[in-house]
Amino acid sequence: xxxxxRGRGPSRVRLxxxxxIERFQPDETAxxxxxxxxxxxxxxxxxxxxxxxxDFFQGFAIGHGEHTAELLAGLPWWRKLLLPVxxxxxxxxxxxxxxxxxxxxxxxxxxxxxxFGKGVIRPAVAAVKITASAVTIGFGxxxxxxxxxxxxGAALGSSLGQWLRFSPQxxxxxxxxxxxxxxxxxxxxxxxxxFFALEILLRDFAVATFSPVIxxxxxxxxxxxxxxxxxxxxxxPEFVLGGPQELPFFLVMGLAVGLLAVVYVRTxxxxxxxxxxxxLPVWLHPAAGGILLGVLLQWFPQAYGVGYGTMVEALDxxxxxxVMLLLVAVKLLAVNITLGSGFSGGxxxxxxxxxxxxxxxxxxxxxxxxxxxxxxxxAFAMVGMAAMVGAATxxxxxxxxxxxxxxxxxxxxxxxxxxxxxxxxxxxxxxxDSIFTLKFARRGQELQYGxxxxxxxxxxxxxxxxxxxLTIRADAPLQEVLKLFLGNTVExxxxxxxxxxxQGRISIHDVKEILHEDGLGAVIIAADVCSPQDHxxxxxxxxxxxxxxxxxxxxxxxxxxxxxxxxxxxxVITRQAILEVYNREVLQHRDRGMQFVTxxxxxxxxxxxxxxxxxxxxxxxxxxxxxxxxxxxxxxxxGISVLAVxxxxxxxxxxxxxPDPDRALAPGDRLIIVGxxxxxxxxxxxxxxxxxxxxxxx
Length: 698
Fold this sequence. Notes:
Strand 9 and strand 10 form a beta hairpin. Among the domains are: about 200 residues, Clc chloride channel (Orthogonal Bundle), CATH 1.10.3080.10; about 210 residues, Clc chloride channel. The protein has 29 helices and 11 strands. By secondary structure, the chain is an alpha/beta fold.
């Protein structure tokens, strides 16, 4: 009884939520802004919880304090050696068994869920990521806490949307809200958090996305400030620019940072490849990396954890130039060992550390050569931090806004912009992909961002294809081919063999040259004159890939195949069908929120269909022509309803008509039908049994 009551609870909450929407009829932006407030609150508390967990594990390992190098100095050598190993023995099995998406810095996994995963992130990811990253940092892993909170916030936002059964586009927006909330709460920088989500993750600045992301960042920052105070992640010195003559030096430093960013990204992925070749179980890789990290900590305790204390020393000008430049190499090695071996943590703080040390070392050398420059170490270290983050992540705007918010100094904006853009230009000249997108490039995956791409990737070919396409048998004589073309306005037919397998495509142009040849009509068959069909798509391909294939073929439609070895023709998909999905979801979206999308029907302001239902465009078989919908009895026989009948008007364009049960179907009519997926497949199997091998129900 108790368990049943608990099971009904969430359904009642969801029902109340949808009743409120029905009662007040808010638009899409209003709905998402309300959801953004919830995600902002959850993301803010998630950042606080993560900070507390990091402090707890660090206190357990070496003691509490920001200056970890000083804390490590009082520990015996064997303890410094074993701490990362113990952390690896905890993190490795936890990630391997709990959520393998939590391995590494996690942002590529968030991007994967946005671009390829319809906005779905498993709730377990948040729990595993927050624990594994806290253990990693607390036990000496040389990583940051900003990247993990991005994945944690994104997972929380996606989980909330999944619980409410939101559409993929809404889930993607909530992922952006969660990521923005995490960055904003961690850095005390709401603008930078919002632009991180918009510039790097979503790449969508539409108002419907921009508004909730901004709200989530603001709410999370307010929550964080209430409990952690209104202070930046680490203090920065007051910036003073001596004059415009100093700006070229910031540009030169930015160019050097761009080169370092390339080394940072390349060595990180090379380290992952090296550890992947170890003859050990994957869950033991972090422990193996922990041994190397423990050895490194014996001489360079500055590589321990996030490293904010060491960065503060550089910003205050309390480090000599050669130590800062040496720490660039040390930190680079430490972060590669940590993330390459499979620990969990972020790449933001290491990027800040590397840029700050290189910038500080550059400024110190410049200060010795030109003594008139005011505070060169702190100024160049501060600007170098932002330049490094912007170059490596592919988000220079986010990095500029982040440092600007952290300093509150408008005078920093000119050198900051110059160095960041210089670093980004050098990086882009040498590498096409950022530290987040290189993982996809190495897999051969092409990332297409933005609202438009997300819409097209959310739907499969089988959702909008026309089934039962017009075909000609491969052995059909030429007279039959000509009769079909003369009796219809169809531009081309697909040629299939006796088993329904695609053989090619035949158009009137293929038979024009032999129309006047006497005696050939009874000799030539369709297979002799058809053209090969070089491009085809499959039922489970997404619409974006299909549209690209249509562009390569320069065609208005493509055949849809089913079956791995000897695919049979099961449908046809048109460019118009894809563009109507695009227009409806992107260009003609009326902010109603709950819609269902079909391949052809222009239906807005409709209720969202249950998950097991789908809408299909059906070309009736020849046997249906001359019969009425009442005679076909689709509802009685299959449980399927006809939503509309698509007919051509006098101008030749398709027009949707309400179904008349007593009007006979005519050639050229197409039906927009709706029903449970299993019933639709049952109908399609009856119409074209060759397309579905025995026993196949998918």
